[in-house]
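Model: You mentioned two targets. I'll fold them one after the other.
Researcher: Yes, keep them separate.
Model: Target one:
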Amino acid sequence: MIQAAIFDMDGLIVNSEPFWQDAQLAVLSELGVQLTRQDTIDTTGIRIDQIVKHYYETQGWQGPSCDQVCDMILDKVIELVAIHKPIMPGVIHALELCKAANLRIALASSSPLRLIETTLKALDLEDWFEQCHSAEHLKYGKPHPEVYLNAADSLGISPENCVALEDSFTGLLAAKAAQMRTIVVPEHAVADQARWVISDVKLTSLNELTTEILTR
């Protein structure tokens, strides 16, 4: 029986993926790294420190450390989220359904905790989430399931009794590896790809979510 709903954040709750793309392009390009917007799209859902480390190892640069570059990118994303407050369609609807179904609600994100806290405050969503977990300091980020397993453990609920809501394929793999029921809301540009078939349910928007989809 489903007892908890665990949400991803970037791309599902907040439309921050374009901000991550813009910030990576601006910061890394200034350091001489060769990358395209498609490169930033292809790494959606992966921790920013892993992305930065990859470019440092493959292309390198002089000056700031990988940690400093991560902070520069994160600062830019936080600034843009605070200004634009880009909540995704159907978020409140989904949270209200979870509450009405007496589901515990948590968040499991690859993003640093600083961004999670800033985003939830900017969107006035802080009170909805009983637990918030970041993969920032874990040995492995998504697609490793640890951040989802930690979220379930903090609620005292078995992963098999949790439903995970995701937008990225990387996150979907993490939730599946955690043995959770999965609902995916992929970006429209990639929604027709065959790989989403591994999810239990695919939606075009959180507005399509129903109690039956959540709890069956």
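Model: Target two:
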Amino acid sequence: MLVRHAESEIPRPGGPDEYHRPLTATGLAQAASLVLPRPTRVVSSPYLRAVQTVAPLGLPVDTVHELREWDSGLQPSPDYARHYAASWADPEMARPGGESLAQLTSRAVAALTALADGGVVVVGSHGTFVARALAGFGVSTVDWPFSAAMPMPAVYRIRFSAGHPHVSGPGLGGDAA
């Protein structure tokens, strides 16, 4: 179960860094009301907002650095959407100090595949990470508009059968891969 975090504080210059930016009061309520199957394990990005989203499940939350959000190489900016759209148009492009979306896709697929152990693993992460993971697992309808419109929180189910991922969740219309 791949979970995009609930509503979080908006990034802002001088605000909490990515590791410490929390959920809003609404986001905490959203996290508390998530309905998921009883997991055998809960893992998360080390970013606070992702941990806060999956913590109400009642199991210890293991943090895994590879589940972190995309490092776009951008500082918080009101015109981030223009930059993100350019990155989606050219996934190989990386800004100085950042990673490309292609690199994120490889990281996301490898991290999630390594967690597939046959149990119900709940993974807390982030919008761009989730979108690129879905794209990496072959969901052809995932693009910048899909990523930008992804709800907070959003839950996607990835089932591995004979080594092949089958993905379902919001905006996908059932199994998409």
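Researcher: Noted. Anything on target two?
Model: The chain has one domain: 2-168.
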